[in-house]
Amino acid sequence: MTETTRLSGPVDGRVARNDWAALTAELDAHGHALTGPLITPAQCGELTALYDRPDRFRTTVDMARHRFGSGQYRYFTHDLPDLVRDLREAIYPRLLPIARAWAVKLRRPAPWPDTLTDWLRMCHEAGQTKSAQILLRYGPGDWNALHRDVFGDMIFPLQVVIGLNVPGTDFTGGEFLMTEQRPRAQTRGSATILPQGHGLVFTTRDRPVATKRGWSNGPMRHGVSTVRSGRRHTLGLVFHDAA
Ligand SMILES: O=C(O)CCC(=O)C(=O)O
Ligand SMILES: [Fe+2]
């Protein structure tokens, strides 16, 4: 079976083909986990090409201007490309049981309903009405400072970034970075190379960490190391909307 036929099914089929039990275990242990291919190289190309279609976006962020790092990203309007909408809808129900299990461990409310549509309605009612789906473009020297994509009280605790270029070929550098602040200890860092079309699921804010007395929260941040050469594009899927 070739890569193209394997990927030719609908997005929810590709999402379903992942071993979600294994991904859940990985997320529990590390706060991030790499999926199999979610979109085809051709779809990666189509998404990358959208970057130059300003009508698809509500705003462009110059990362240096905000001291977020260096590079650019664009927020899609709510009129999302079908592929982006389908991915988000197919992934939300997979992440929901993880979000709920983590909330129980951390003794936090779990306000997330069964469907993304209902959750987004709740975000909108709380004033988080803007699309938070982004396309990012990094060139040589660009990087993304360690951060959290929290825009208000309405937070879905897991998000996904999809790599749109081929690492080592289209660009060098540009590893996806995560840090975890450990209680009474120094911070742990990790770097992941995002293969083209694959997704990295990661926690937006923190993960439950087992302690002698139960669970505590391990605060986490994510970012991107400096791109050395070429161009790196990613698609950022967040499950709450922005304020
Ligand atoms: O470009 C990346 O790998 C990460 C982008 C990011 O910050 C995000 O998707 O939230
Ligand atoms: Fe981010």
Automatic annotation (TrEMBL):
Record-linked Gene3D superfamilies: q2cbj1_9rhob like domain
Coiled-coil residue spans: none
Keyword set, alphabetical order: Iron, Metal-binding, Oxidoreductase
Domain Fe2OG dioxygenase: 128-242
Signal peptide boundaries: none
Pfam families the UniProt entry points to: Oxygenase-NA
Keyword Hydrolase recorded: no
Origin: domain of life: Bacteria
Record-stated family: Belongs to the iron/ascorbate-dependent oxidoreductase family.
Protein name according to UniProt: 2OG-Fe(II) oxygenase
Organism: Kitasatospora purpeofusca
